[in-house]
Design the sequence.
């Protein structure tokens, strides 16, 4: 907040009394330090903390943290009577944060906050002009500004940031009757940033010491997760190198991390480097300097945060009651948990399939397929014949078909027969050749140069925890 060149967007509603029209203006005001307007906003009850980024959340360290109060007049003691009335009828405005939960509608959310239905309807109608309320994601935070008096709740405004660069505010117009929506987007520029650091305790501490945002370190971790056991293989003196994109607003604030272009991990004497490369067919992947894709095998766990509730092999069937071969792995997870494609492939089957319920089968190569059963639903728009990439969400955990509770039944098939998913390690065979390999080598040189240029200005960061 104290950064120089802090830009404050202020929406001010001006009453053009002479014409009897409410005219809405938007000013862009450059504030250095804490001037009068800044001070007023800082003092406004509950306003200064709106959209304050959570610590450790780089995506939240965004533009909106420095933005204006959602409610015109709430920060301004000189508001015209109309606004003062809108904002302060009988009590100070209350800020209320609400979070979108599974199954929520915006109407339901507002009603739960005791907003009368006709006001909620008005606010939603205004919001819909700039943002489809059905696009609200689970976990999305909304800030409501309310006034409660005499047992009645009055909605003054609401605000949400669908992403770190966009902020939408709905507020009452001057007359205090209708709602108007404002949609603000920050411009960003992409900058390449290089980092390298020696690991003295953990990779994340080394990253923090080199001022690498945590999201970029998570990206680096993912890139090597196939090969490196970070608990066991990492030792003091090992090092990482990273070239990644930073999307920054005009005041240099990090909005979010873009793509990692290059990452290297040196463990002992062994240096592993990977380069991002987009092939002419549009597929992007990470490759070793020799041009081999780093995606080596199917994902071990094609669903996030799940535990194996039943392994591959003989077991007593929970519904049928007798012992039979369990030809897959069951992952217990709540209904709605996303299911990932275990590898790059093509949708071979998608639809209901007897006791499997909602079912998807992906073909990964001439031999190997994977199957996913009991889904509650499929990823939107997914059709037979579609290409999917490893890690892409293909559907959601459910309990359709013959199932005792929500879980993913996962199978790996080789030549059409189920095999133990834990027993295989399948190379994807994706190695660049010919012209593609030549193009990749050129790219590697470019990236190496970019890293050397960026890295020339950085010291080898060394993080020593006390
Ligand atoms: Zn099963």
Sequence:
């Amino acid at each position: 907040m104290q950064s120089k060149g802090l830009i404050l967007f202020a929406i001010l509603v001006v009453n053009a009394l002479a014409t009897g029209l409410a005219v809405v203006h938007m000013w862009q005001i450059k504030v250095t330090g804490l001037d009068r307007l800044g001070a007023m906003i800082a003092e406004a009850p509950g306003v200064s903390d709106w959209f304050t980024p959570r610590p450790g959340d780089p995506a939240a360290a965004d533009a909106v943290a420095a933005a204006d109060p959602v409610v015109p007049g709430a920060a301004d003691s000189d508001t015209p009577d109309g606004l003062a009335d809108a904002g302060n009828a009988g009590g100070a405005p209350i800020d209320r944060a609400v979070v979108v939960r599974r199954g929520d509608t915006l109407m339901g959310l507002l009603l739960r906050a005791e907003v009368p239905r006709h006001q909620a309807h008005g606010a939603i109608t205004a919001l819909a002009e700039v943002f489809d309320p059905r696009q609200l994601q689970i976990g999305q935070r909304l800030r409501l500004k309310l006034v409660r008096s005499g047992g009645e709740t009055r909605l003054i405004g609401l605000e949400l940031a669908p992403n770190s660069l966009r902020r939408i505010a709905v507020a009452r117009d001057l007359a205090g009757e209708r709602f108007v929506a404002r949609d603000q987007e920050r411009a960003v520029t992409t900058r390449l940033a290089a980092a390298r650091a020696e690991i003295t305790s953990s990779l994340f501490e080394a990253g923090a010491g080199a001022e690498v945002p945590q999201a970029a370190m998570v990206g680096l971790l993912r890139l090597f997760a196939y090969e490196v056991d970070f608990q066991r293989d990492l030792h003091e003196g090992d090092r990482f190198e990273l070239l990644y994109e930073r999307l920054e607003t005009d005041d240099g604030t990090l909005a979010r991390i873009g793509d990692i272009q290059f990452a290297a991990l040196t463990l002992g004497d062994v240096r592993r480097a990977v380069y991002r490369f987009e092939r002419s067919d549009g597929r992007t992947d990470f490759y070793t300097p020799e041009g081999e894709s780093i995606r080596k095998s199917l994902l071990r766990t094609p669903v996030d945060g799940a535990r194996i509730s039943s392994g591959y092999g003989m077991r007593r069937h929970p519904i049928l009651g007798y012992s039979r071969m369990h030809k897959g792995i069951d992952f217990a997870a709540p209904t709605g948990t996303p299911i990932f494609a275990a590898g790059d492939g093509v949708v071979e089957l998608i639809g209901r399939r007897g006791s499997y319920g909602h079912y998807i089968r992906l073909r990964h190569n001439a031999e190997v397929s994977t199957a996913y059963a009991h889904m509650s639903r499929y990823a939107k728009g997914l059709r037979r014949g579609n290409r999917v990439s490893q890690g892409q969400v293909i559907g959601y955990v459910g309990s359709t078909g013959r199932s005792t509770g929500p879980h993913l039944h996962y199978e790996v098939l080789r030549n059409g027969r189920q095999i133990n998913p834990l027993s295989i390690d399948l190379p994807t065979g994706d190695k660049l050749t010919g012209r593609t390999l030549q193009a990749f080598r050129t790219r590697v040189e470019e990236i190496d140069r970019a890293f050397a240029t960026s890295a020339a200005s950085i010291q080898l960061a060394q993080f020593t925890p006390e």
User: Anything to note?
Assistant: DSSP finds seven helices and 26 strands in the chain. The CA atoms of residues 347 and 362 lie 5 Å apart. The domain at 7-185 is CATH 3.10.450.350 (Nuclear Transport Factor 2; Chain: A,).
